[in-house]
Amino acid sequence: MRKSLEWWSAVCSAAAVAAFLLLLVFSAIGSACGMQIHSLVSADALRWMYTHFISNINAMPWGELIIALVAVSVVWRSGLLNSLRAHATLKQRRALSLTMFVLLLIVLVILALVVPPYGVLLSPFGTVARSPLLRGLFGALCLAAIILGTVYGLASGRFANIADVTRACIAIPRLLLPLLPLLIIASQIYACIIYVI
Prior knowledge:
The chain is an all-alpha fold. The chain folds into 2 domains: about 1-60 and about 180-195, no CATH class; about 65-175, no CATH class. About 75% of the residues lie in helices and about 0% in strands. The protein is built from 8 helices and no strands. α4 (about 90-115) packs antiparallel against α6.
């Protein structure tokens, strides 16, 4: 699977570079024809690309992508999703019960920070709209998935120690590393499209 992913990454990266070259050509032609767009073949554009390379990469939601991949990886490697099937062993059912108890604790903690008037995770006006609760919801869900997967994995015996949990955290992100060049190129193309328009 890894070789296949590396091959697809190389093909997609080549296609992305070709798309970038087309964007260069079309922006130059459009600018020369008097269209209200910026040419990527100009001194200003070259200065912009040179000085914004890192900020263009940082504009992509890398943190969200990484934490989501880690969460999915831990849940997958722990076997938590498989435990929901009808033929789970006694040990798996007990591990699932413990995991559900931990989920209940997480929900109760969140509720304790939201339900009281002017709770810590509410907005300054005491509402959920534009509150820390909503701004941090994605991260909280990913962290909860990591905690629940870890609890289930340790309780079911799927994880023997913290090293197994660490390996589970990187299982899926490690598989997707060949796509990193494609993601960097894609972030640059996206930023260049925004610059041109």
